[in-house]
């Protein structure tokens, strides 16, 4: 392949990458193929993905940590705590939907949303039903059924498994 055709192809792939016409890792692979490994784009892309992945995991864990902090270590009133927890649930869900369209680490956000929703349910049980065992069992069953439904709809089998295990553990708890 002559060098002018090769440069045209490399420029075109670079254009695709800059304008997100193809996933970045495809473009990096094609650039490495056509430049015969003489580009540093793959190393920069790896560093960029590492930072992005770390940020995504940090966001999900930070939301969970802040939720626990808001519930157990603050003296906010019930309405404010509920608004904060609900906003975390909605925020994580929106991030999950956004990243699922990009097929990029979206499961962390869905898992975070499920845990946040469970925390919110336990919080409601504490404040509204004064830690009633029956109401807590009902809320846990609703959460487990929601996990099963979400897993079935999104084909996330660990959600289905978690929901089934949760219901089984709850049945064992009730019967013992």
- What sequence of helices (H) and strands (E) makes up the elements? HHHHHHH
Shape: elongated
Describe the biggest sheet? none
Number of strands: 0
Rounded Rg: 23 Å
Low-confidence region ranges: none
Q: Give the tally of structural domains.
A: 2
- In DSSP terms (H or I, runs of 4 or more residues), the helix count works out at 7
Mean pLDDT: 85
Which properties best describe this structure?
176 residues, 2 domains, 0% strand, mainly alpha
Question: Could you give the topology of this structure?
Answer:
Layout: H1 3-18, H2 24-34, H3 41-72, H4 78-101, H5 106-129, H6 133-154, H7 157-175
Helix pairs in contact: 1-2, 3-4, 3-5, 4-5, 5-6, 6-7
Provide an overview of this structure.
Helix 3 runs antiparallel to helix 4. It contains seven helices and no strands. The termini are far apart. The radius of gyration is 23 Å and the shape is elongated. The model has no long low-confidence stretch (mean pLDDT 85). By secondary structure, the chain is mainly α. The chain has two domains: 1-39, no CATH class; 52-175, no CATH class. The protein has helices at 3-18, 24-34, 41-72, 78-101, 106-129, 133-154, 157-175. The longest helix has 32 residues, at 41-72. The chain crosses the membrane at residues 54-72, 78-97, 104-123, 129-149, 156-175. Keywords: Membrane, Transmembrane, Transmembrane helix. It comes from Heyndrickxia camelliae. This is DUF2157 domain-containing protein.
